[in-house]
């Protein structure tokens, strides 16, 4: 049962972060032309990250099962943790690019 919980937690956490990144991208894409032009590479990087997250979520759904046991998913969990750390840094950088009054609503 522990493997099932770990798998589901990984999937839910990735899905939640994907939603956060997607919201950031939508907000960045709605900026006026000049402002958007300044951060275009960041927007493209975030689109790539969303795509990678889609692949990772699908991989977790397909390969992470209760039958494999917790030891068998240790490597996947380490990869997940590394990707999540990178995502947090990227999301934080994106948030700093947006003015505080621009986000939310």
Give the topology:
Layout: H1 2-29, H2 33-38, H3 40-63, H4 69-72, H5 74-97
Helix pairs in contact: 1-3, 1-5, 3-5
**What is the number of E strands?**
0
Query: What is the average per-residue confidence, as pLDDT, rounded to a whole number?
Result: 76
Give the C-alpha Rg. Answer: 16 Å
How far apart are the termini? 40 Å
The biggest sheet amounts to:
none
The oligomeric state is single chain
- Tell me the helix content: over 70%
Beta-strand percent range: under 5%
Overall tally of domains: 1
Give start-end ranges of low-pLDDT stretches.
none
What is the H/E order?
HHHHH
Structural class: mainly alpha
What would the principal axes of the Cα set say about the shape? Answer: elongated
- Helical run tally: 5
Short description:
The chain is an all-alpha fold and 105 residues long.
Task: List the defining traits of the structure above.
single chain; elongated; mainly alpha; 0% strand; 105 residues
3D structure, described in words:
By secondary structure, the protein is mostly helical. The protein has one domain. Helix content is 82%, strand content 0%. The chain is built from five helices and no strands. Helix 1 (2-29) packs parallel to helix 5 (74-97).
């Amino acid at each position: 049962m522990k493997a099932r919980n770990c798998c589901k937690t990984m999937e839910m956490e990735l899905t939640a972060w994907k939603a956060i990144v997607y919201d950031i991208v939508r907000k960045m894409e709605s900026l006026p032309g000049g402002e958007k032009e300044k951060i275009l590479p960041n927007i493209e990087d975030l689109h790539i990250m969303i795509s990678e997250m889609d692949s990772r979520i699908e991989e977790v759904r397909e390969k992470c099962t209760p039958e494999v046991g917790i030891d068998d998913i240790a490597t996947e969990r380490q990869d997940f943790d590394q990707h999540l750390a990178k995502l947090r840094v990227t999301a934080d950088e994106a948030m700093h690019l947006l003015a505080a009054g621009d986000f939310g609503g």
